[in-house]
Structure formats: C-alpha cells, structure tokens
Amino acid sequence: MSQYGNGSVAVPAAAGEADIGAAGTGAGDGGRRGGGGRAGRRRAGIRGRQGMWGWLFVSPMVIVLGLFLLLPIGMALWVSLLNWNGQSNPFTTAADFVGVRNYADVLTTDGLDRKLFMTSVRNNLYLVLLVVPLQTVLSLALAVAVNSRRVKGKSLFRTIFYFPSVTSSIAISTVFLFLFQGSGAINELLKWVGLKGPKWFTDAHGLVWTILGGLGIVDPDKPTAALASHGFLGLSWWDWLSGPSIAMCTIILLLAWTTSGTYMLIFLAALQDVPAELEEAALLDGANRWQSFRNVTLPAIRPVLFLVVTLGLIGTWQVFDAVYVMSQGAPGNTTLTPAFLSYTSGFQDAAYGRAAAIAFILLAIVVVMTLIQRVLTRDRDRPTKRDRFLRRRAS
User: Fold this and answer.
1) CA 169, CA 177: separation in Å to the nearest integer?
2) How far apart are CA 275 and CA 246, in angstroms?
3) Is the distance from CB of 169 to CB of 257 less than 8 angstroms?
C-alpha cells in the first residue's frame, strides 16, 4: 500500500511462489489435505520448540519477578487480613486472622483510623488535582520550548530542566524546608516587595478558607454550621472543601518542579516524531501557531499525553519522601498522605495488618482513577471493541 496514495502496488510473485501456486491448483483439495497435514505438524512442532526455548530464556526473569514481586504482594495481601504486630510468623496460628476488619476500620467504621485515612485521601486528592495538571502543562511547555528551531543551546536547557529530576529527592526536600521556613529566603524575598510571608509549616488552615478569610467572606477559625454539621466518609464538608494547607502547597510546588524534567523528555521525544510537514501545511492553510499546535500537534501526541498523565497520577498517590522530610503529616495532618499513613501504621504503631490494608486500598484507588482517566482521554473517533463487534455481526 502506498504511504500517501489510495491504490495498491502490485508485487511480482517469485518463481518459487508461482510454482507452489501452480502445484496447489493442480493438486486440488486432495493435495492440500494430503500434504498439508505433515507440513502443519512440522510447523506445530517448530512452534512448540520455539515456545520451549522462549520459556527457557525468560525463566530467570519470571523467577525473579515471582520471588521479589508476586510473592511479596501475596504475603502483603495475607497480612492485610491479620491483626499482626510484626513479631511473629504471619503464617502460623500466632497471628490473629480478622478477615476484612482492617479494611472496614479505615473505610466504614467511625473512629480515628477512618478519620486519618480519609484525611490522607483528601490531602492526596489535592495533590492529584493540582500537581498532575501543573506538571503536565509545565513539562509540555518546556518540551515545546526546547524543541523550537529558534532556541539555541538546546542541550544546555535540556540538562538544566532535567537536573532536578535526577537530584536526590531527600536533598531537594531539605533545601525546600530551609527556603520555606518562617525566616527563610522566600519570606525574605516577600518582605522586599512589601508582603508578609505565611507560616509555611505551622499553619493548618486550608488555602481556600484562608483566601476567603482574607477577603472577609468567611472566618477560617469558625466553620459555618451548614458545612460543619454535614459530611462525607467521616469528614465534614468544611474539611473536604478547605483546600490544601500552606504546607501542602510547598509540597505541590516541589513535586511539580522535580517531575517536570522527566516528563519533558517524554514529550520531547513525541514532538520530534511529529512530521514537520503537517505543521507547515497547517500554517500554509492559514492557521496560526496556537491553532496548529492544538489541531495538529496535540492529536499527534495524544498517546504520550495519556502516558504522562497516567504516570503523574500514579506518582502523586505514592508521595512519601517529601512528606517524611518536610512535615511528617504536620501541621494538623494536613500533609498526611496514604503512603505515609501506611508507613506510620506499620513501623510506628506496629499495626502491619492495617498498614497492608491501606496499601491495597491505595492500589485500588490508583487503578480506578487510571481507568477513569483513560475513558476521559480516549480518542472519541476511534471505534471501541463493542463497535467493532457490532460491525462484524452486521457484516
């Protein structure tokens, strides 16, 4: 098939192919039945030997994945059904089997465990809603900038933009911790422009109520009765709608800054695969650069955009190191994440069953949100499996 035309290109048959075709025609169905069985068995035997050698070559990796991935996952799933303190063998009768009680404690049973877990989920939702769009837009903008023909020294800029992604996250978190202290460099810079910097890691008020309080609309210290008396999943609507705390905002900035370099390289590889002729044709047709980018470039990199959003979504639900270094959940559990809560439940409270249950609930949340994001970003013009099935039945 021609790449740009609609017709097909005829390829002359080789001499051997012509002889085979002639022999097949002369022999008829009987020849196909008579000689095809032996050839079919021979091909099946070859495939069988290839499959055996294939499994032999991949068996080391299968064994490694089984020992260090599948087996630990199975063990953690079993631990999530126990009341285990980590001191005994979880596969003996010394461990108390409680079934799904660990899951019920953090999902349906009113109490401290449920409140802490829902608070961590709320905080992580702020990360998803703010970090994923911010890092996606920032990384795409950086990729477009360094991919431009007008930019000189592209290699230097790529290295500079990618450098935070390869730097130790613990080191970057420590630097951010010093920058955003009450007497840190950020507040000193704000003083130069006549602004008073906030108490970054001691103010537990949500950003939404803080802004509305500054405008005189609400009092951040006095929740309204309508929002405080009603709630969802153990938290009042006042807590759900409070927005990220000031401390969480610093973590959001850190995550967006440290991850944008990696996603920039992914976008850059996708942009370089877009044919320049398509963009030039759009410009010749009268489209400006924004219209060309929106109608030509973005559809061309849609699979990569889905990949970046999916990786960002998974990454935001796995945030641990920044929280551990900068806040450890403080102030007032406004920076607590499910990953850090699972760690504290296991290694500080010795409730390994509850910690494992939180980890598997977190896995389920990631899978569900990934599927939702996949549905929302799918190509509307591409036929689904159901459409293809109905077409086959109609034909």
Assistant:
1) 12
2) 44
3) no
